[in-house]
Specification:
Strand order of the largest sheet of chain A: 8-6-4-3-2-1-9
Shape of chain A: globular
Largest interface: A-B, 110 and 111 residues
Radius of gyration of chain A: 23 Å
Oligomer: homotetramer
Distance between the termini of chain A: 10 Å
Largest sheet of chain A: 7 strands, parallel
Number of strands of chain A: 9
Strand content of chain A: 5-15%
Order of helices and strands of chain A: EHHEHHEHEEHEEHEHHHEHHHHH
Helix content of chain A: 40-55%
Structural class of chain A: alpha/beta
């Protein structure tokens, strides 16, 4: 395997400004790195081969900036985009850092906080439209509780729905070409967060007035934090035609949100996720939401950012080789994997006909079927061989 | 607190035959208890104050029974129901014990197994109708995988949808007054199970041809196995009007499926679940899906079954007292809990009006709002006091 | 159950200054509360009924203070202790907040950091002696790694042993009446922390030059973060005569370190922990290491601190009632619990005699023993009844 | 990377008879495979390149066999060993399958069960000696509880110690060249198992009369089930000179005990474990304790067994290449990894000298040290490249 895993703009890699810009402040420690100028970040990411950036409003324009400072910042930032050709493919709102959101934003028990959160988001939607972002991500990091006594969950879902209905109406009214993507997470920073998994978010979307405008932005680490199979979750989102955006990173099981660089934790799962995205023709950004380790110095930040892209490209090449390998195709067939795409009923078969088919039940040899070969271990080991570069 | 926690039929407690009938076979050990006659179980449960029983087809009628044995068994069983007044409130299908289902049932890669699974289920739906069960639960215990290579998840969801569409058509054709309830579970016995949480099941249901006929049957332990807040999940199901049935039990966090008796693990969470069910006017069965500890002898089985009901009744009384306590009501108000039911927009308020309201943003004192009292700890401790009987 | 759960100094409750002083800064949010004056904290805690305080060096004396500031601070602090009668029962060192410790302290790959960490700790041992603290806790929050490539674990354990051997020599040389207590934690803020559980810490202590001077300081939440049974862990520490100090709090399973107030998460486990501590005659401080919820305002802090003590007192009263209940004693006997204290060999019995006893093997009726009653469910439900105040 | 990963006897691979012999019975399903003749298993494993086998008494000699049947079985088995040259490197006792052990074995509340468990084990120690096994593993699968009320943990540890003290005395008396290895596991089949992790087992061993005769047998999956870093745990066991035996397999995080084939779950962690074992000169058997997937037919069993060895050999080759790579050596140095082996005190340096060294504290530039490069991300990505075969 040669070393040609150098990203280009066509690979559609993007990074949150908050990722490379993370200063390393954690619950037990102070910042280890100085603030990072977003303009500098755009240039460095462009040099590394990225295609786009994303950000929370406050990542770019510090909370509480006045109008003049805001405009000056945006002007400099736009210039950096122009110089580098980088795009802003997604924007999101910070509804979690400031103490005002300590008990929630769209679902805070305090109505004035809810109104403020709506206004902050609406303003940011305008910015998204202005900068050409077509995806607007919503992570409700503070929408949750530590005490079951202190949050009426059904009322909270009503308020969450109210918020998204308002946003959909707003972009419709304004004619913005923007779609929303909800980012689920089970917990942290709240003890339990509402819409904790891909499934809960998909279910919620179906209750909205405009479900067609809202999808999900699943994160590898967040699904891992619920102990769920990451590829399975993304596949259900694709199946529901709701995979509007993605957050790629790494997480070692059930613990604090690690935001490791992509591939750094579960390599096999990362392979199958890339395989799914590529096989399914996912066309959105390959977006990284990770945190360079707190122990790294500023240069280590760029090493880790480059590594995210490199690992994706390696896994993409492996996924392609895996799909092209004749022995793999034979092993997939031996495991019956392609057969699952065949409907269980024959074309045009009615329930009555199924009931009348003795081969389906009365004459079906369940004991023999119970003894059949399934060939899963062989297939799985072939995957391991591909991942390890051992064939 | 007096000792009047004796169940009656009006409490609508029901038990799976497989719960009290569990013989104690586990992955590392042989059965510790002899098989239990379902007729005996019906009588014992009735004596303890239960209202109903539920079962998998094979719990009552051993797999592979011929027609005559089947009829004889059903006749005895019906007689027991008549004698005791017990109802069969739910029926479900065993699609997991026999080796034929080792690689799945509705989503097995082998199409003949899928057809067999449909037939086994359709036959069991007839039985449900015959016995008057109005809820038909579907737990897809074998619908999953241990290897990401060996299951095309999107195809599997297609097949799962095909199955439920068929079942809905079938009960419609036959005019059965039956609704379906999907039981989510993240894993075990498969490494990862499809539709792993309440959220994923709700999202799936929305893709069906007849979503109105299908709801969920969440289990306390299963949601716990994904590290999720149990009450939150049930609340989202209620919010979506999909809480068709429930499985009450206990589970100590992320490990093998324990099926402890109700209340035996997370007592505080159990309290808030009962509070939710009672406050929301949930009208279905209070159904226990637990396993008496393997170490118990046959009499210990009935002790544990009685304890499930007793604990529910104690918690129900406590939930009532909690809601009636004036100090609690004041504390709920101080924490702003009831305020969340008030829409964030004023009645008739438009987005334009929200945008034009300076008190919502321009004049909103975020710093003061960030310092406001939320009074959660006090409220939560009041709940603890109620649970502990310390007030 | 009356409401007499008001703590007194005789209850030996103590609090870390960092607990009530936590400002609510978390990985996703800024501080919600102003810094708390330690002198004020001492007074408020004394008023609430606490007996002592504990602290990291930097909690009291800001990192980098000069000698004069240090002395002034200590003088004010000592005066507060004198006025209130509060004791400093334990001191610990902050080896995790400053960026210098970003890659470890005693086990940092950088030797100069290791030397600095030793010096900072030795200086703090002097302070402990000066203030009369007899327990010196060591939590190695940064002693770990996110990458298996970047830490030689065996070398790290050598360095950890070197550090503790130095500290033991130091207090011996100086004649300080101080013992050390290692606080295990599986992860956070590092991906994996060395000495992750009570067991690992106990095992490590046995490799030291002076194991008799070092014990453990287990935290409820930390053991829960490894999915372990909290009471079991404390019991093994007691069994090894190594329970030198404790951290009481609450944690909902495997997620970020929640530091909930004591009893707020797993109530049943909290009951059995209190029962163990009281039954075993644990004589150390009942020390709380919790964080008042970030959403609370400054008054909420004291509500939560008071609640920690109240819950302990309630559970202590319940444990006493549980042990005194005749039916419980009978149920414990029926479950064979006291029998486990009887040695398996008879007094003086040799192995040869055991081998020659046919009742032990050749004539032992394993089938009958396999069917015996164990009466666990009944006993456990009695415990639930006691916890719930339902008897 | 060529395909030369064919095991030979010199690789010292061994398998439990219960691994390839697992019939696929799980908590929700019946057996999918017929019983496997141990003699056939010995031959097949030998053909695949294995060096040894291990077993529980009951794996080879069915529970309850009479003396004649026992001898006949042993004779056939010995012949298979002779024919194939396979060794029995370890033996262990089944103290968990039969109902008699439902409430524990060495720590059952029932003393007669404890005596029976001692006898069953002593008998099996004789067999181990007879067959030349030098490692005797003890997994206390039933030594635990589901209820904190029903087990006196300190008494249980007394009884556990009594058992191991007896066993050590016994092999000493008999002059058997046998050592014991305790296998920790956090839970399953009991809700909580005593000695739940490597750490707890090491700590326990230190309380025995003959700690030098007892070590640990850690299992990849078991440590994963406590959310712990597998390599860290093995490293602490090596550090304590207690890694007497190992169980290699795979496990996806916190769920039921999966016993996947080695490498099938966390590939990166598996790499670092192999790297540790090889670098540390671990000389024991490379022993696999896995379960071929229940869905596999009998031939799939051997595919999975071969895959365990193949993956080990691939990872061993990679570990060697990793250690030999000049860029890796440079990156390790840049990350300071080798520096950790240097004592923190200089040779002969006293504490007084450390205290007198101003460069260690007074003149130490903590801010600069806080900004230093640690180069972890680069090193970790190099490891990823090696694992993926991308360099």
């Amino acid at each position: 395997m040669g070393d040609s895993f150098v990203p280009t703009r066509d690979d559609h890699f993007s990074f949150g400004l908050w990722t490379v810009g993370w200063q390393g402040r954690d619950p037990f420690g102070d910042a280890t790195r100085a603030p990072l100028d977003p303009v500098y970040a755009v240039h460095r990411l462009a040099e590394l081969g990225a295609w786009g950036v994303t950000f929370h409003d406050d990542d770019l324009i510090p909370f509480g900036s006045d109008e003049a400072a805001r405009e000056a910042t945006l002007k400099r930032f736009r210039a950096a985009l122009d110089e580098t050709g980088m795009v802003v493919e997604m924007i999101t709102t910070n509804l979690f850092t400031h103490p005002v959101f300590k008990e929630g934003a769209f679902t805070a028990n305090d109505r004035s906080v809810r109104r403020y959160a709506l206004r902050k988001t609406l303003r940011n939607i305008d910015l998204a439209a202005e900068l050409g972002a077509q995806i607007f991500v919503a992570w409700g990091g503070r929408e949750g509780a530590e005490s079951d006594a202190a949050k009426d969950v059904r009322a909270a879902l009503d308020r969450m729905k109210e918020a998204f209905d308002i946003f959909c109406d707003y972009v419709t009214e304004r004619g913005y070409p923007i779609k929303f993507a909800i980012e689920p997470k089970p917990n942290e920073p709240r003890g339990d967060i509402l819409l904790p998994t891909i499934g809960h978010a998909l279910a919620f979307i179906n209750e909205l007035e405009h479900p067609e405008m809202v999808g999900v932005n699943p994160e590898v680490g967040h699904e891992t934090m619920a102990g769920l199979n990451v590829m399975h979750g993304y596949a259900q989102a694709l199946w529901a035609k709701k995979l509007f955006h993605i957050d790629l990173n790494g997480q070692h099981g059930l613990k604090y949100d690690q935001d490791l660089r992509f591939g750094a934790a579960d390599l096999k799962s990362s392979f199958f996720l890339v395989d799914l995205l590529e096989a399914a023709g996912y066309e959105g950004a390959r977006h990284f939401d990770f945190k360079p380790l707190r122990a790294e110095d500023p240069e280590g930040v760029w090493v880790s950012a480059a590594a995210c892209m490199r690992t994706y490209l390696i896994l993409r090449a492996k996924a392609k080789a895996w799909r092209a390998d004749a022995e793999v195709r034979e092993a997939l067939a031996a495991a019956g994997v392609p057969d699952l795409s065949q409907p269980t009923l024959a074309p045009g078969e009615t329930i009555a006909e199924l009931l009348a088919d003795p081969t389906a039940y009365e004459q079906f040899d369940v004991e023999a079927a119970g003894r059949r070969a399934t060939n899963i271990e062989r297939l799985d080991q072939l995957a391991l061989d591909h991942i390890l570069g051992a064939r």
